[in-house]
């Protein structure tokens, strides 16, 4: 058992050590730290405590990048073997389920922890810059390490139970959404209750405070304040490691049941039905449209009618959440629509990046790019038709965003009059970067795109603070960002024939 586990672990470590993508991710993280350092130094003339600001920038950069990386990195642990139909061969070779899980997960966890460890010496610079103690640095990296164990265990469980990578990634996003939102709401409830009602230590309040303390997102907010003196090992670290180990054990117990049936074409088309009778006919793709490429991506990438219903339910639910958050935070009701529009725009950008990446990756993984290139149609015509199909699947979100803009015209015009057009152009970079990365990586195109967008944002802010341009410079920035989007368009269309020739 352990011989097979060690063999898989050694192969995984050797493969990652020789992969340029792994070293590129580490380099990108180091570049992000360097950009954060330069950003803080350029802003030091406006604010005090540069060490604390540098430390805060590194912490939030780590939380964002490791979360995005963990979603795509650990959710493919077992599903990639299912999709390649090699899971049964590995079991027939005599590798036990426990050995397979340890061998597949161990290498990824080591690589993720190395990403955290290589930053520690650079973070110590914050102590010399002032405003940060060694206890804060140690507490942050203990929290990040335990959070990575949680991501590894949760991703392994989702990857074991899910039939394919897309489903596992979706489950992982939902679980992390609950992990971040529920403790935050508990923290806000405790704060509001204790502010207006002076109640001694109550069991319910202690329970809410315990839940709030289990999240890294709330723990980070407590660490990066001045005067922090708690222990590095906290309830968050213990609970995250414990839950990660629990998920690993649950994956081991469910492995035999989850891997009993091999991956089939029917399981990859989630939410679609082949029935031509009753309610199942509504979820069936039916006959192809006149534009077969748009029909294919609408049903098999965007999810068809079933995913449409999910989106129709999700965006009104998001509006209700924004209304509740407005009441909880004391935000005026007139601004609750603006809060909804902001979150709806973020979710639309994220969903469009996912669908665009899936649309490209399905063709690369299925080795069908060569067939598409040889069709008697131009490459732009084929792929713009595919992207039209994915956009057609997102129309509930686009419709809700349009209706929300009609109810909040004043704030929308104010937003676009000042910096809104630049922010929108910055968000549009995410799906464009995702389309480029999808041609080269098997996983992680969307996290890499979001990470690149964050680095572009920091670089732009740093540049603006250095040169201090005129107010009209924001329009120049928008134009530059749109040029980058157009460059990504041209780059994708030029690279598709080259990638097809290698496949």
Which structural traits does this protein have?
503 residues; globular
Structure description:
The chain has 503 residues and is mostly helical. It has two domains: 1-262, no CATH class; 291-503, no CATH class. It has 23 helices and no strands. Helix 2 runs parallel beside helix 22 (445-467). The longest helix has 32 residues, at 165-196. The protein is globular, with a radius of gyration of 24 Å.
Element layout with pairings:
Blueprint: H1 2-18, H2 20-43, H3 50-74, H4 79-83, H5 87-92, H6 97-117, H7 120-123, H8 125-129, H9 134-161, H10 165-196, H11 203-213, H12 216-223, H13 235-258, H14 265-268, H15 292-300, H16 304-329, H17 336-365, H18 369-373, H19 379-393, H20 395-407, H21 409-438, H22 445-467, H23 473-502
- Which structural class fits the helix and strand makeup? mainly alpha
| Rg computed from alpha carbons, rounded to a whole number of angstroms | 24 Å
- Note the main sheet: none
Number of helical elements:
23
Distance between the termini: 36 Å
The amount of helix comes to over 70%
List unreliable stretches of 5+ residues: 264-268
Q: Into which percentage range does the β-strand content fall?
A: under 5%
Shape: globular
Q: Topology as H/E string? A: HHHHHHHHHHHHHHHHHHHHHHH
* Number of individual domains: 2
**Could you report the average pLDDT, rounded to the nearest whole number?**
80
The total strand number stands at 0
